[in-house]
Amino acid sequence: MKSGGMVIIKSDATYNDTVFRLNEALEMHEIVPMAWIDHAELARAAGLSLRPLLLVVFGNPSVGTPLMRTRPALGIDLPLKLLVWEAEDSVWIGYNEMAWLAARHRLPNDRPELAAMRNAIQSVASQTAGERVRQ
């Protein structure tokens, strides 16, 4: 499902299992996360409640840097981000659609760097959701 430049897919697992699979997917693709932001934990620390909501920031400078040289403002959207959240009866995974990022920053959608990012994030998100990824 696409919504306002964001791809959203449903996980077939619990929140904790989905996060575990996210870790596995990142390892499988040799992607080292730059940051794990646990919004629910931050809310708890502020005395507030929030359903589980995790933002993972990751990227590859050799892929993103050439794009940011062309369009420095792309740095607001890079590194890539993947969001995992728990709704009432489902767990969801979301990320920015590469075509949306390309349009937002006036980049040709056929840039090889965008294709590499698209392939990486789609593969990680699919594996995290529970879809089999061919190796």
Descriptive report:
This protein is an alpha+beta fold. The chain is built from five helices and six strands; from the N terminus they run E-E-H-E-H-E-H-E-E-H-H. It has helices spanning 15-28, 39-45, 61-70, 98-104, 112-129, and strands at 2-3, 6-10, 33-38, 53-58, 80-86, 91-96. Strands 1-2-6-5-4-3 form a six-stranded antiparallel sheet. Helix 3 (61-70) crosses helix 5.
Low-confidence stretches: none
Average pLDDT, all residues: 93
Helices, by number, come to: 5
Strand order of the largest sheet: 1-2-6-5-4-3
Summing up helix and strand content along with how strands pair, one would put the structural category as alpha+beta
Which geometry do the CA atoms define?
globular
The percent of residues in helical segments reads 40-55%
Question: Beta-sheet strand percentage?
Answer: 15-25%
Would you report the number of β strands? 6
The whole-angstrom Rg is: 15 Å
- Span from first to last CA? 25 Å
Give the SSE string: EEHEHEHEEHH
Largest sheet: 6 strands, antiparallel
Task: Give a quick precis of the structure.
This protein is an alpha+beta fold. The protein is built from five helices and six strands.
What is the strand and helix layout of this fold?
Layout: E1 2-3, E2 6-10, H1 15-28, E3 33-38, H2 39-45, E4 53-58, H3 61-70, E5 80-86, E6 91-96, H4 98-104, H5 112-129
Antiparallel strand pairs: 1-2, 2-6, 3-4, 4-5, 5-6
